[in-house]
Structure to design on (620 residues):
């Protein structure tokens, strides 16, 4: 596969300017040096991006306790709230927000600081202090950003919670973190309906004995009349705990800290998506997904404008997302491949009916791409002008393992290569690096954004990520590196299907199926089989113009067999009205598999629509 996007002027990008400042001519040389000498690289990033540590750090990296417990910017003091809002010109636009009903609000950095300081003062007044956990259960509104910043300014720890969680899911996370407070909103809008939040929040709090304070947006404190004295904390002081859904047991609380998180994500925003003070960044996300805190950090620490939207992308009309981008002159857009697949059936007209010339960078993450949707995103949405910065990492990673950079040509669906400073590799089953084959994505050295363990569960942290090979982080993704050094993802390794001893990633099957004109979405799973070990089952969402006849079923099975080999012919092809997805549009294949097998699907608290499980159960 050949590149389809080429940089016009690398020197005009942030990463190009960084290279020039250090006398580095080739990006490959920067990539290599950043991995071989991470102490030099991350110190240089701090200085280049002017990430201020009022108390300077004495050491960039301390891995004396072992790689899994590495510390960064040792001895330094700073605060995420200070870096994100306090130090920027107060008159510059910080946030532009639009509600589903069309309301628009804009806050300057000065107004954002006043809102954050007002909350910080209230928290201190009500006894919330350094290290106390505070849940944030809110929609994507400006006050949500102010909440994160206000909590950080106090030195407390925020817990970002999905706006779609039920009371039980909220209570579980608040209880695990021994939260002392919860910040919530009265309601939010979704597809024209008002969804209550405060009732759910109260029901959750009733189950958690540690919560002493609940703050609702409708009773939000007045903006501070005088600045709150932001508390400078140690670089390793906890900033937030992000909970991920586990297949079994309680959710995992990934711990992020002020220094490492802020430096790593600010670097990604600047060097990968090229965000700067003149940009407006919009990532279609929820604060309960890691991309919520990511976009707040990437935009505000770099002095850009953060765009927020409260609602769904195709309501009240299919062009809602594209009209939002035009109205607010978004320059950097982030979206998931799954969401693009859901918008494509509306056709090109909703996109082409709007002026999207402000866009200059397209971001994506969440799931592996297949070629058709990637090209639609690149060609129809971006007009072939914008690089697709397809990033991959995770909540526990604190950001990205892999990313293209806007100084190198980009191939369709590619993740480029290592995110700068990241010692990633692809291993075979024996723990040896491989090329041209699919293997485990691993990381062999520490990085600033890595989780500081799973909250109150160090053994689970070591068992989950560090136990397979010594001092090697195993991420759970299948990856490959082609002959040109470009990286590609192939789905989660725990989703892998093994048919007659042959390993297959579900994304490979799904990419084939969605090339059929009748298939809108697809999911592939492995089901136990006495002969093959596992049999391949596929679930498809059709375009509504046709039922899944025996002829179409056979046609889809033959399509997979022709493309992937006869041994991978699906044993079952079923049509479902919808696929189970999280709020951030990831397909929950484990839930599909559990439903088929009649087993416990594990934690489903992030499931967007519980009726999709019934749809799978009734699939024909």
């Amino acid at each position: 596969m050949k590149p389809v996007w080429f940089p016009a002027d690398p020197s005009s990008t942030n990463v190009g300017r960084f290279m020039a400042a250090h006398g580095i001519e080739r990006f490959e040389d920067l990539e290599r040096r950043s991995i071989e000498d991470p102490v030099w690289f991350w110190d240089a990033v701090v200085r280049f991006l002017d990430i201020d540590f009022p108390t300077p750090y004495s050491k960039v990296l301390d891995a004396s306790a072992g790689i899994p417990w590495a510390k960064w910017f040792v001895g330094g003091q700073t605060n995420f709230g200070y870096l994100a809002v306090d130090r920027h010109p107060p008159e510059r636009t910080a946030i532009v927000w639009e509600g589903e009903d069309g309301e628009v609000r804009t806050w300057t950095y000065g107004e954002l600081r006043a809102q954050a300081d007002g909350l910080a003062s209230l928290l201190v007044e009500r006894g919330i202090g350094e290290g106390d956990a505070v849940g944030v259960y809110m929609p994507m509104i400006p006050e949500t950003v102010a909440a994160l910043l206000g909590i950080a300014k106090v030195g407390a720890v925020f817990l970002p919670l999905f706006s779609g969680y039920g009371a039980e899911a909220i209570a579980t996370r608040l209880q695990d973190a021994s939260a002392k407070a919860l910040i919530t909103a009265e309601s939010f809008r979704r597809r024209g309906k008002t969804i209550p939040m405060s009732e759910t929040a109260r029901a959750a709090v009733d189950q958690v004995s540690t919560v002493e304070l609940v703050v609702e947006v409708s009773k939000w404190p007045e903006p501070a009349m005088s600045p709150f004295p932001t508390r400078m904390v140690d670089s390793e002081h906890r900033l937030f705990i992000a909970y991920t859904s586990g297949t079994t047991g309680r959710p995992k609380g990934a711990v992020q800290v002020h220094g490492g998180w802020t430096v790593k994500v600010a670097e990604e925003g600047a060097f990968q998506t090229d965000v700067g003070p003149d940009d407006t960044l919009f990532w279609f996300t929820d604060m309960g997904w890691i991309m919520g805190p990511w976009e707040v950090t990437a935009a505000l620490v770099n002095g850009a404008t953060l765009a927020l939207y409260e609602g769904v992308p195709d309501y009240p009309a299919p062009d809602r997302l594209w009209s939002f981008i035009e109205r607010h002159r978004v320059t950097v857009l982030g979206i998931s491949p799954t969401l693009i697949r859901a918008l494509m059936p509306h056709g090109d007209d909703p996109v082409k009916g709007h002026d999207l010339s402000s866009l200059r960078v397209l971001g994506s993450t969440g799931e592996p791409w297949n070629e058709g949707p990637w090209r639609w995103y690149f060609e129809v949405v971006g007009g072939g002008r914008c690089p697709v910065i397809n990033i991959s990492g995770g909540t526990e990673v604190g950001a990205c393992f892999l990313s293209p950079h806007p100084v190198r040509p980009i191939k369709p669906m590619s993740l480029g290569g290592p995110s700068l400073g990241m010692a990633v590799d692809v291993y075979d089953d024996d723990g040896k690096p491989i090329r041209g084959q699919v293997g485990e994505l691993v990381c062999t050295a520490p990085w600033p954004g890595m989780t500081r363990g799973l909250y109150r569960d160090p053994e689970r942290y070591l068992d989950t990520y560090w136990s397979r090979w010594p001092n090697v982080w195993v991420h759970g993704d299948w990856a490959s590196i082609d002959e040109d050094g470009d990286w590609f993802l192939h789905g989660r390794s725990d989703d892998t299907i093994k048919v007659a001893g042959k390993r297959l990633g579900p994304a490979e099957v799904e990419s084939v199926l969605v090339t059929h004109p009748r298939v809108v979405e697809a999911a592939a799973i492995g089901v136990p089989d006495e002969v093959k070990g596992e049999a391949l089952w596929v679930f498809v969402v059709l375009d509504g113009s046709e039922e899944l006849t025996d002829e179409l079923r056979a046609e889809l099975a033959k399509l997979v067999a022709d493309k992937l080999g006869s041994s991978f012919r699906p044993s079952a092809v079923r049509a479902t009205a919808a696929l189970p997805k999280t709020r951030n549009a990831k397909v929950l294949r484990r839930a599909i598999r559990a439903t088929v097998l009649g087993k416990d699907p594990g934690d489903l608290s992030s499931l967007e629509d519980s009726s999709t499980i019934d749809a799978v159960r009734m699939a024909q």
